[in-house]
Description:
alpha+beta, Immunoglobulin-like, 2 domains, four-stranded antiparallel beta sheet, 3 helices
Amino acid sequence: MRSHMKSHTEAQRHRVSGTENTVIRLFQVCFALPLAAFAAGCISNSTGMVSGEVTFNGKPLEKGEITFSPTGNKGGTAGGEVALGKYVVEGIVPGEYQVSVMAVPELKIVGPNDPEAKRTLTDAEIRAMIDPLPPDTKGKEQTLEVKGGKQKLDFKLESKSRP
């Protein structure tokens, strides 16, 4: 009799477990999968890619750096290289950013016997080594809104002191 009860109890457990599996599968199909698909759609738009052109007095900036620093507490600092007037910054959280553009000077290699190696640099020469754009350059510091997805932002830097 016990073996009959035991097999009857096991059958009930198996039936309950089969019912539970059906409920779990139904939940997965009706709720979990659509929720995952919705979340994947939201996540893909939760960061942005910003690209564009950087010009100085109408000509592409040869070499530089662009930095996006958040003005609030959303997101982190992101940046990239400017090469031949073009840049791309990926993985940036949508929000308001302070954008800084800086030119990178071409380094001049000086040997130990070169007279340039013994010359003291002026303050203007040292500043030009850090950022060769003139101090009066307009457009190299801007506050902009970055959106999710792809966005094109161009930066037109202008200076009257250098044509």
